[in-house]
Amino acid sequence: MTDSSRAIGVDLGGSGIKAALVDTERGRLLTERVRVKTPGPAEPTAVIAEMRSLVNQSAVAGGVTTDADVPVGVGIPSVVIDGVTVTAANIDAGWIGFPARATLSEAFGRQTVVLNDADAAGLAEIRFGAGAGRSGTVLVVTLGTGIGSALFLDGRLVPNLELGHVEIRGRIGEARASAAARIRRNLGWERWAVDLDEYLHRVDALVWPDLIILGGGISKQADRFIGRLTVRPPVVPAQLQNNAGIVGAAMHAAERAWAERTAERTAERSAEWTTTDRTSERPTTEPSRIETATAERTSETAPGEPIAPHARDERTRPISSPASS
Ligand code: BGC
User: Where are the domains of the chain?
Assistant: First the structure.
């Protein structure tokens, strides 16, 4: 296993915070999942203290305490733009406008990326789960404390889609149809499936996906409700269930770290070549152009921007291959 294939994934949910060291090439947990209850109120200082402890526990369990190159990915139920959490639907309002990436990187002492929790779960499900190998428009809907949504077009994520907040008969969709709403409203599976179906019909009318994948812990009980749904596109249960958020956050961290390392090496090599060019020991043309093109592409993975699952394959092509130009 290479360095870039391990990362610690953290998933902040309404009821629990979970973490593990992940083999991001296989989508598997390398350490047992550690979990604590989400502090109430779920404000940044209390949450970060718990996350820090979970990250340390995962690093100890995975034998990577001294390996500072193992990065961390954190999924948060918030819209995340440039590492800043800008909304807070099921967490404390203290996360609004909070510099999450910078604060967490410092707290963990490791390179850290932050992304929306449903985007993280979706990335894992599209790479390793029910969406693997699927092209077209795939919508991953996670049913938990709220409703998360992640939209993929040919495997590439459209980040920060907030379809849990679509309004239905005067209330936001997640207030009726999330897994927590079923319990809070004391609904049986049949009655709840009617509300979930209405919600999915509304979402379908807005997005028209080719496939809907239903995730969240409740997907373990999919046979109790999926058969009752009448929505147009096929609906299938997620396969990674409770681990999707951890795996996807870790994948994003590993890919970001890998892209940054590649960009650094490319820049170093370009600098070396430029120096050599000046001493006229090397032709100045073709290699420099190839390196520049590669550096430009890797820099597309801007901080906070989830990376498409297939992007890594493209970046792993040898620098001089024609496909990389
Ligand atoms: C939040 C989303 C989140 C979803 C699932 C919603 O209330 O607005 O950002 O992905 O809950 O946790």
Answer: 130-239
Angle CA(175)–CA(176)–CA(182) in degrees, nearest 5?
A: 105
Q: Is 11 in the pocket of ligand 1 (CB under 6 A)?
A: no
Residue 310 CA to ligand 1 center (angstroms) comes to 25
Check whether 282 has a pLDDT greater than 60: no
Counting Cα atoms < 13 Å in the Cβ hemisphere of 162 gives: 13
Q: Does residue 77 have its Cβ closer than 6 Å to ligand 1?
A: yes
Ligand 1 atom with least separation from CA of 14: 12
By mean pLDDT, which of 56-60, 95-99, 251-255, 262-266 is the weakest? 262-266
From the CB of 85, is ligand 1 less than 6 Å away?
no
- Helix (H/G/I), strand (E/B), else coil: 225: coil
**Looking at the domain 130-239, which fold is it?**
Nucleotidyltransferase; domain 5 (3.30.420)
| Span 111-122, average pLDDT | 98
Q: Binning pLDDT at 50, 70 and 90, where does residue 267 land? A: confident
Mean residue pLDDT across the chain: 87
Q: Is 78 in the pocket of ligand 1 (CB under 6 A)?
A: yes
pLDDT at 72 over 70: yes
pLDDT at 261: 82
Q: Where are the beta strands (DSSP E) in 112-255?
A: 112-116, 137-143, 147-153, 156-158, 167-168, 171-172, 211-215, 235-237
- Token pair recorded at residue 162: 């907030």
- 40: phi then psi, degrees, rounded to nearest 5: -120, 125
**167-217 pLDDT, tens digit each:** 999 999 999 999 999 999 999 999 999 999 999 999 999 999 999 999 998
Please tell me what DSSP assigns to residue 189: H
Task: Determine the Cα–Cα distance for residues 123 and 119; give it in Å rounded to an integer.
Answer: 6
Residue nearest to atom 4 of ligand 1 (CA): 148
Which atom of ligand 1 lies at the shortest distance from residue 78's CA? Answer: 9
| CA distance linking residue 48 with residue 62, whole number of Å | 21
Q: Is 222 exposed, middle or buried (0-12, 13-18, 19+ CB in 10 A)?
A: middle
